Amino acid sequence: MNSHTAVIYNASSASPSFVTGGLNPDGRLAAKTEIVVLWGPPGQEQMAVYRQSSSAPGFLSVDVYRLHADDWEYVGEHSEKVPTPPAPPSNSVQSNVDGRDVWTRQAMTPPEQLRLSELLKAPRKNK
């Protein structure tokens, strides 16, 4: 596991620990996650989890989830593996939400922080 985990919100990045909320509470997914990217309007958020590939050592698999009725629903895995995760933009704003590092395009408002906190706790629909 990398020493940092990231969440990017609104095309934000987040630390790998983002996935230990409702998505995978036991921590196995976080142990192999490099970064999480979130995007989409409230209630229609999507998430890409960049994790170590089990079939292609040295590469990352990208699992995509979407929010459906306040649960994270697994959409699928990208067919291509990637060599490196996306990095938070150099001009992004780093903050911390519920103990997780988060990078956003601009400083989050209190309602945006609350929404991100809710997303951290949203359960996975199809476990």
Could you characterize what this model shows?
- The chain is mostly beta strands and 127 residues long.
- It has one domain (6-121).
- It is 13% helix and 37% strand.
- It has two helices and eight strands, in the order E-E-H-E-E-E-E-E-E-H.
- The protein has helices at 28-31, 110-121; strands spanning 6-9, 12-14, 33-39, 46-52, 60-68, 71-77, 93-97, 100-104.
- Strands 1, 2, 7 and 8 form a four-stranded mixed β-sheet that branches. The chain has a four-stranded antiparallel β-sheet with strand order 3-4-5-6.
- A hairpin with a 2-residue loop joins strand 7 and strand 8.
- The longest helix is centred in the C-terminal third of the chain and has 12 residues, at 110-121.
- The model is unreliable at 1-6 (pLDDT under 50).
Short description, anyone?
By secondary structure, the protein is mostly beta strands.
Structural class: mainly beta
Q: Specify the number of helices.
A: 2
Q: Given the C-alpha coordinates, what overall shape results?
A: globular
Number of domains: 1
Which residues sit in consecutive blocks of at least 5 with pLDDT less than 50? 1-6
Strand segment count = 8
Biggest pleated-sheet summary: 4 strands, mixed
Following the backbone from N to C, one meets helices and strands in this order, namely: EEHEEEEEEH
User: What is the percent of helical residues?
Assistant: 10-25%
Radius of gyration: 13 Å
Give the overall pLDDT as a whole number: 81
